[in-house]
Every structure is written in structure tokens, then in C-alpha cells.
Amino acid sequence: MLVATYGGSWSWFPIQARDTTIIFITAITAVVLALFSQSIIVHGAFQVLRNRPVNLLESTKIGLRRFFPILGLIIFVAIALFLFVTGMLLIVGFATTGLGRYPTALIFVPPIAAALASLLVLIFVTLMLIARWFVIIPICMVERLGPWRSLTRSARLTQGHRWRIVGIILMVFVPALIIDGVINVTAMAVGGRMAQFGVSLLWYAIFSAFFAILVVVTYYELRSAKDGADIEQIATVFD
Predict the structure, then answer these.
(1) Position 33 confidence tier, pLDDT thresholds 50, 70, 90
(2) Domain boundaries along the sequence of the chain
(3) Based on the number of CB atoms within 10 Å of its own CB, is 150 exposed (0-12), middle (13-18) or buried (19 or more)?
(4) Would you call 140 exposed, middle or buried from its count of C-beta atoms within 10 A (0-12, 13-18, 19+)?
(5) For a designed S-S bond to 114, which of 95, 166, 168, 210 qualifies (C-beta 3.0 to 4.6 A apart)?
(6) pLDDT tens by residue, 101-122
(7) DSSP string, 99-131
(8) Is 15 helix (H, G, I), strand (E, B) or coil?
(9) How many CB atoms are closer than 10 A to CB 211?
(10) Would you give the DSSP letter of residue 94?
(11) Which tens digits make up the pLDDT trace of 166-191?
(12) Three-class SS string for 19-81?
């Protein structure tokens, strides 16, 4: 966000190269910072669940210990989601353009219906993948597993509970998107671009912390339901 805000100062770049560079740097920076902050919040959330004081320095140290395994995990998930979404978008594009070249009477489904069906499949499968891998970061940190084993472990833990997790995701993200839009429009109207940047950054920090805590609580509930483990058994790895 910060790079994008001051992207205008890169005026000596060719426009396409400048935009591509800004997007790339912004994406990499956002992933690294979000990853690091979430690993810190995971430890802090467990301390709160255990009725213990939260020490930011201790949480930072523990987060750094698992930074690279979590980074590998996030890269793997990002590539998998990217390939899936790209493939589905290509299908949607084919449905709207390729099939449109033929008379509607010659095809079983009209192009617009095929495109809508493809989009629904894209949304559904994406949500299911997110639900399947919803607790990968606390698994990687608490159970000290590598990227692949964290993915398979998350799949086992969430099995039978994915529809509930999808419901939680929708209940959280739909209001969050509405609030984000209202905040951005209001801040831009009142204080301009810098005010929008500051308020958006604050909102992003609050929501990221809330979402990380939600993931930790979900992981704890799944472990309790499937493994019969209590919070002290789960979090002894941090002692």
C-alpha cells in the first residue's frame, strides 16, 4: 500500500514497467509483513487463551523461528490458488468469447449461462480450498510440521467442518469488505489520499489481527473436538 501510494514519484519509469514494478513490490512486501505479523499474533493469541500475559518480544522471537517454513507454506498455497483461479478464468473467458462464435441453438448451454456457472464453480472451489487449509499457519507453528505435512494435517482437521468454516469466512469477509469500502470513500472525501492511506492501514492492521485470532481459535476448537486436547497440551510447544 505504501509503495502504491508514492508510486507517482517513479515518473521516470516507463508506465507499464512502473506499474508492474509497483504491483510486484507491493505484493511481496504485503505477503512478508502479513506472514510475519500473523506468526506473532498466533503466539499472542495462544497466550491469551491460556490466561497468560502477552510479551511482544517473546512472540516476535517465536514467530521468527518458524518464519521460513511458514513462508514456504504460503508460497505453495499461493501458487496452487493462482493456478486454479487462472485456469477457471480461462474457462470463463472461453465460455463468453469462444462459445459465443457459435449459434446459441447449436450449444447445450448459452455462453452467459456457461460463464455464470464457471464463476460459481470458481467461487465454491476457492472457498472450499481456503476452508481445507484454514488452519495451516497454527499447525506449522504449534506442531512444527513442514509445508506439505501442514497442508495434509489441516485437511484432516477440517474434514467434516468445512461448511462451517466457509460460513465463518463469509460472515467475516462480507461485512469487512463493506466496512473497508465505506472507510476508503469517507477518508478520501474528508482528508484526501493520505488520510485514506492512514485509515486503511489502521483498518487492515485491526482486521488482520482479528482474523489471525479467529484462525487460532478455530484451530484450538478443531484440536479439542478431534484430538481431545486442551489448550495447555496444545500450547506446551511454546514453553
Answers:
(1) low
(2) 2-238
(3) buried
(4) buried
(5) 95
(6) 555 444 555 566 666 777 787 7
(7) GGGS-GGGSSS-HHHHHHHHHHHHHHHHHHHHH
(8) helix
(9) 17
(10) I
(11) 999 999 988 988 988 898 888 888 88
(12) HHHHHHHHHHHHHHHHHHHHHHHHHHHHHHHCCCCCCHHHHHHHHHHCHHHHHHHHHHHHHHH
Number of C-beta neighbours around residue 206 at 10 A: 11
In this structure, what C-alpha cell is assigned to residue 136? 495451516
Residue reference for cell 461485512: 175
Q: Which three cell numbers stand for residue 237?
A: 510447544
- 166: its cell numbers: 466457509
For residue 215, the tally of other CB atoms under 10 A from its CB is 21
Question: Which residues have C-beta within 8 Å of that of residue 202, sequence separation ≥ 6?
Answer: none
Q: From the CA atom positions of the chain, what is the Rg in Å?
A: 21
Residue/partner pairs of 60-68 with CB below 8 Å, 24 or more apart: 62/141, 62/238, 63/36, 63/39, 63/141, 64/36, 64/39, 66/39, 66/140, 66/141, 66/144, 67/35, 67/36, 67/39
Taking the C-alpha atoms of residue 153 and residue 212, their distance in angstroms, rounded to an integer, is 19
CA separation for the pair 205, 196 (Å, rounded): 14
Least confident interval from 127-136, 179-188, 224-233: 224-233
Interatomic CA distance for residues 207 and 211, integer angstroms: 6
Residue 216: per-residue pLDDT: 86
Predicted confidence at residue 154, as pLDDT, reads 92
CB atoms within 10 A of CB 158: 22
- What is the Cα–Cα distance from 45 to 209, expressed in whole angstroms? 9
